[in-house]
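yo, NUDIX hydrolase is done. seq:
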Amino acid sequence: MQKELRVAAYAVCVRDGQMLLARWVAGDGSRHWTLPGGGMDHGEDPYDTVIREVGEETGYAVQPAALLGVHSVLRRYPRRLGTVADFHGLRIVYETQITGGSLRYEENGSTDMAAWHALDEVERLQRVELVDIGLRMWRERPADGHAVPERRT
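structure:
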């Protein structure tokens, strides 16, 4: 089994009762809303990663305002040629504030759209678990920076 580690930085950006999300396009073509953000480049600081990724996916310039926490996820999934990947994702989640730019969609990336969504409507969106984790971190501000996801029904 091949071990894979992915370290990424994500933004929780809430303004006027709305949350900024990006729509991720999965390998099978399905689309799910997610927090704007993504993988760190080698040697990149996660603070700089979240600024770069939000800009790429949404068009906005952001300033990280607070480190909300770190979330770790483990998954196993099939790879090519019948192998299995043992995936470990480490997600660094920041609260961010818009400092410039304007909303636009990413071209030739992993997302195809970015949009603001009313906080009370987020739970009805087709979304990845990371959105719920980020919202819990933002609302609860866990002192230890750890948010365990709740199971959806």
